[in-house]
Amino acid sequence: MKTAIITGASSGIGEAFLRELVGDQRYEQIWIIARRADKLNALSEELGKERVIPVVLDLTDSKGLDILSSKLEQEKPQVELLINCAGMGKRGTVNDISLSDLENTVNLNCNCLTKTTKICLPYMTGHGRSFKDGPRILNIASSAAFLPQPGFSVYAASKAYVTSFSRALQFELKKFNIGVTTVCPGPVKTEFLKKATDNKAGEFTGIRALCAADPVKLARSSLKACRKGRGLYVYKVSQKALHVASKIVPTSWILWIEKVTMKQF
Ligand SMILES: NC(=O)c1ccc[n+]([C@@H]2O[C@H](COP(=O)([O-])OP(=O)(O)OC[C@H]3O[C@@H](n4cnc5c(N)ncnc54)[C@H](OP(=O)(O)O)[C@@H]3O)[C@@H](O)[C@H]2O)c1
Fold first, then answer.
1. This prediction's pTM
2. Is the CB of 185 under 6 A from ligand 1?
3. Residue nearest to atom 1 of ligand 1 (CA)
4. How far is the CA of 10 from the centre of ligand 1 (A)?
5. CATH number of 243's domain
6. Summary count for the chain: helices (H), strands (E)
7. Label partner for 167 (CA 20 to 30 A): which of 34, 85, 116, 184?
8. Residues 27 and 18 sit within 8 Å (Cβ to Cβ)
């Protein structure tokens, strides 16, 4: 079966991807991965139980990826699209954030994304097809990847990993007609901030509020960029400007600007 797999599909950007993909008849099945069974089951019920298949697992748990591996082995789907969207971050200094939160951030954002990709790759076949029509991997990084971010340092570093890994993978897989797109959004209006601040902040403020993106629009245009075979997709002009600045302005200057302008969430 031609299948799309989305990690982190129970809310936010992952859910927005799911809602976009439901209208795309190219995918006979859409596997949706996350921990919250109630959310995944409700989405499957709403969007079509035959086609939208909940795969309830914790990616950071050693058994989680085994569940995915076994399901792939049993069903042998033709994976046409893998969206690695599950991710987390905790705001605060390294001194203040708990060791388990630091560990989980690196594990989920880097380790699990890498392993999920490796596990799914044998089921992605670009052989005998053109690159234009080949399978796709879409990895959600962040504009946080562009620069070190004091107060969000582990998250930003983890997203730098996602970007570096995905961009290299793009070159490794192109000869097999498999496309890899790295998406770098700035702030997006989802549950992410609430979780990152342990419910202390629900909405972005200040400069971040001005750039905050709608997850539905982000998902729609990311899928278009992915279909076109784009390697890096930086979403919104504000983040493109930050990307260019990160290449030409000395990092120490940008860190100073961050310190002065971005005290709020
Ligand atoms: N929102 C932003 O401002 C922003 C900006 C740039 C990039 N991003 C990135 O976008 C991606 C999606 O975030 P979002 O904004 O949509 O936030 P979100 O609503 O919190 O979504 C996170 C998703 O990851 C899943 N997840 C978390 N831990 C998991 C685990 N251990 N195993 C399996 N699934 C897990 C969550 O589901 P369960 O809790 O049900 O497991 C949820 O579906 C993340 O990679 C994030 O870093 C977000």
1. 0.96
2. yes
3. 188
4. 8
5. 3.40.50.720
6. 11, 7
7. 34
8. no
